[in-house]
Write a structure and sequence with these properties.
CATH topology of the largest domain: Aspartate Aminotransferase, domain 2
CATH class of the largest domain: Alpha Beta
Distance between the termini: 57 Å
Helix content: 40-55%
Shape: globular
Pfam families: Aminotran_1_2, GntR
Structural class: alpha/beta
GO molecular function: DNA binding; DNA-binding transcription factor activity; pyridoxal phosphate binding; transaminase activity
Keywords: Aminotransferase, DNA-binding, Pyridoxal phosphate, Transcription, Transcription regulation, Transferase
Bound molecules: pyridoxal-5'-phosphate
CATH architecture of the largest domain: 3-Layer(aba) Sandwich
CATH superfamily of the largest domain: Type I PLP-dependent aspartate aminotransferase-like (Major domain)
Largest sheet: 8 strands, mixed
InterPro entries: Aminotransferase_I/II_large, HTH_trans_reg/aminotransferase, PyrdxlP-dep_Trfase, PyrdxlP-dep_Trfase_major, PyrdxlP-dep_Trfase_small, Tscrpt_reg_HTH_GntR, WH-like_DNA-bd_sf, WH_DNA-bd_sf
Strand order of the largest sheet: 4-11-10-9-8-5-6-7
Family: In the C-terminal section; belongs to the class-I pyridoxal-phosphate-dependent aminotransferase family.
Number of strands: 16
């Protein structure tokens, strides 16, 4: 059986069906086998595809028939305008980073690593094993399977200094990716209408989740060394906020890593104001020239709500992440998780655990570090050579992105469009600002496909900047 022959049969039968009246009987499988000189399996496969397309139906023991075409009436959704009213927040369309790219594009706009950076063999083997395990047929606990909870807790515990109580497995809530965890945290700990401090720029998905939760965003400027702790203190004081969302390690989009001093000072501020630090450790597996140092490892009083994802480092198809939180905050987040999604697929949890506890995982991470280093440096060198007027705000010690400031007068929309006509996709920085953008920025991701094309991409970026300025 080949896909090609069943595709050929499907195409031919579609033409036949289009000309046939509803209820017409298809030739028997045996005569189709003879007509197309194909195997019965191939013919059956073609019939299944046509059934899936709603074009035919089979009546067991009688035959296969052309289905009646339902006439398509124009739908009228006008009534919904009155029922829904205007949206509380302007809903954004598809974020730039999630746009699909054609195969020949140089895609610097995305957020998820290319498959050559993923532990493909580990993922495939783990999914096969998980499919044979009990978790393929059972319901998982709301907070996650205990072994995976224990692994997430142990990871953070390994960074916890003596004298601080390490997190326990029971503090962990497993999630289907960290994005929905952010929504839960904002709903459960901040709640609608209340203020949330957020670094600016910051992850567009956190801005989106907070906005959807009805939370009021209070931007805190963040530079190459992170936010100024005094500004954070002042914002807590002035707004009465009780939470600060931040990425202390390899922030998306800037790549910033807080110094130990900044981390300690911000933790002190958060404690002083009886508040939470929502620490998004999304790039924990993407250290390049430094190692990540979670702020949560310094806290055992429940001030830091820690979120860690495996989605980008293990596989975008294996969406598994976790929140580590303590006290009533953890209970409130868990209640929100139960309401939102009940529990995470046991197969995914079992596979994720299999991968991260496999001896091959650590060697994969070591290899990944080298690959990210050479990709990052190739993109930086190429930009320095071909686009000298673009300013790199920081050589990121980790993460997947460069945050580039374009010359002040750049029309960002025109720049993005012009790059796109030359098949180079970049993400407009506007999406990472919780308030007005402070300049024309773009984010370039160096973990996408085809790093060999970086010099060409930089040449096009440089040429475009020259042309439109
Ligand atoms: C900072 C940050 N947090 C969270 C996420 C969401 O990750 P996940 O795929 O685990 O939902 C992303 C994805 O781009 C991110 O950049």
């Amino acid at each position: 059986m080949t896909n090609d022959s069943s595709t050929r049969i499907v195409a031919d039968l579609q033409t036949w069906i289009a000309a046939a009246p509803a209820g017409a009987k298809l030739p028997s499988t045996r005569s189709l086998v003879a007509r197309y000189e194909a195997s019965p399996v191939t013919v059956q496969k073609a019939l299944r595809i046509l059934t899936g397309q709603g074009l035919i139906e089979s009546r067991p023991g009688v035959g296969t028939f052309v289905r009646a075409v339902r006439t398509a009436r124009p739908s009228d959704y006008g009534w919904q305008t009155g029922a829904l009213g205007s949206p509380r927040n302007r809903l954004s369309s598809e974020p730039a980073t999630m746009r699909a790219a054609s195969v020949d594009a140089i895609a610097l706009h995305g957020g998820y690593p290319d498959r050559e950076l993923l532990p493909e063999r580990l993922v495939r083997a783990a999914l096969a094993r998980a499919g044979r395990s009990d978790t393929a047929l059972t319901r998982s606990p709301i907070a996650g399977i205990p072994e995976l909870q224990a692994w997430f807790a142990a990871e953070l515990a390994s960074a916890t200094p003596t004298g601080i109580t390490a997190p326990q497995a029971s503090d962990v809530i497993v999630l289907p990716g960290s994005q929905s965890g952010l929504s839960s945290i904002f709903r459960a700990l901040v709640t609608g209408g209340r203020p949330l401090l957020i670094e600016s720029p910051s992850y567009w998905g956190a801005i989106l989740a907070a906005t959807q939760a009805g939370v009021r965003l209070v931007p805190i400027a963040s530079g190459p060394s992170g936010p100024d702790p005094d500004h954070v203190a002042r914002a807590f004081e002035e707004t009465g906020a009780r939470a600060f969302y931040a990425q202390p390690n390899y922030a998306n989009p800037t790549g910033t890593q807080w110094s130990a001093t900044t981390a300690q000072q911000i933790l002190d501020v958060v404690r002083t104001y009886g508040a939470f630090l929502v620490e998004d450790d999304w790039a924990h597996d993407f250290g390049i020239t430094t190692n990540p140092t979670p702020v949560a490892a310094q806290d055992d009083n429940g001030h830091v709500v820690y979120i860690r994802s495996l989605t980008k480092s293990v596989s975008p198809a294996l969406r598994v992440a976790a929140i580590i939180a303590r006290g009533p905050a953890r209970d409130r987040i868990l209640a929100d998780r139960a309401a939102a999604s009940m529990y995470v697929s046991g197969i995914l949890q079992t596979a994720a655990l299999d991968i991260v506890t496999h001896p091959g995982w650590q060697s994969h991470l070591r290899g990944l570090r080298h690959q990210l280093l050479s990709r990052r440096d190739l993109l930086i060198t190429s930009l320095t050579q071909h686009a000298p007027s673009a300013h790199l705000t920081l050589i990121p010690p980790g993460g997947l992105n460069l945050w580039l400031r374009l010359p002040e007068s750049t029309d960002l929309t025109a720049f993005i469009r012009e790059c796109e006509t030359h098949n180079v996709l970049v993400a407009p920085g506007t999406e990472w600002f919780p308030a007005e953008p402070t300049g024309p920025y773009v984010r370039l991701n160096y973990s996408g496909p085809n790093p060999g094309a970086y010099p060409e991409a930089a040449r096009i970026i440089g040429h475009t900047l020259h042309q439109i300025s």
